[in-house]
Amino acid sequence: MSETPKPLRYVDIGINLSDPVFRGKYHGKNAHEDDLSDVIQRARDVGCAKFMVTGSDLVESKHAIDIASKYPGFCYATVGVHPCQAKHFDKHPGGATKMLEELRTLAISSRDSGRAVAFGEIGLDYDRLFLSPMEPQLKYFEAQLDLAVELQMPLFLHSRAASEDFERLLAPRLAKLPKRGLVHSFTGTLEEMQRMVDLGLDVGINGCSMKTEENLEVVKAVPLDRLQIETDGPWCEIRPSHASAKFLDGAPEMPKSVKKEKWQKGCMVKGRNEPVAIARVAHVIAKVKGVTVEEVCEAAWNNSIRMFGLGEEAS
Prior knowledge:
Blueprint: E1 10-15, E2 25-26, E3 29-30, H1 36-45, E4 48-53, H2 58-70, E5 75-79, H3 88-91, H4 95-112, E6 116-125, H5 134-151, E7 155-160, H6 163-174, E8 181-183, H7 190-198, E9 202-205, H8 213-221, E10 227-229, E11 257-258, E12 268-269, H9 278-289, H10 293-308
Parallel strand pairs: 1-4, 4-5, 5-6, 6-7, 7-8, 8-9, 9-10, 11-12
Antiparallel strand pairs: 2-3
Helix pairs in contact: 2-4, 4-5, 5-6, 9-10
């Protein structure tokens, strides 16, 4: 008699559940009912057993912690200020020192309560300097790295078109962080990925990580013991125009998708990526790497638990 296969289980290590679109609000206007609980349940139904809700500034980090407190043992938060928000340090009432102290206090309390498991999303983004100039990005990436080292929290990192400065600031601090961290939504070159792995970092893969043939070569080369999976919803869906789309044959079916104006309970919203899609991300990764989905899921699960804990014992 053949053994019953183990059910697939996933950690979505990058999901922006505090985004208003998961409450039915788009560009400040209500388009449909709050369906956050449905979004979460759809993901749980396909085996997504853990979420890491991304914090991108002080306010969003607090929102992420609130969601983690409402879904204990299932949702966990990250705490940090995204590079595109770095200019807000100097604009903060009381200045950057005050904002860093508030961030430190928030990180300590949420870490100690078990609700926050990583420091981030921090890093550098030179693709979007119109949102925050290079100088505050560099200054406050460094300051937040030092804070993460002080608090001994693994890193949840962002890097876009900034690999030289990113690695220069990161490398000397990683030796002081036993669990290192993860570069999420990775879209860099094969050489950049190999340098990340050499630094002891894991690599987070989502739909945006698999847009081009070059991206797929990178995904193929990511060692299984350094791979983690994410959706980065409500963004980064796998689109028909992506190089990865040809690997969707045989992938798990997604719920029906409708325009937000025609929302129906139980349906996904077109253009709003959801954590239920993590099953498709894992499917494509497996096809690209020429391994089973079970191997991808088990490796990614173990890597996420080993790095972030998430209320589980690492195997």
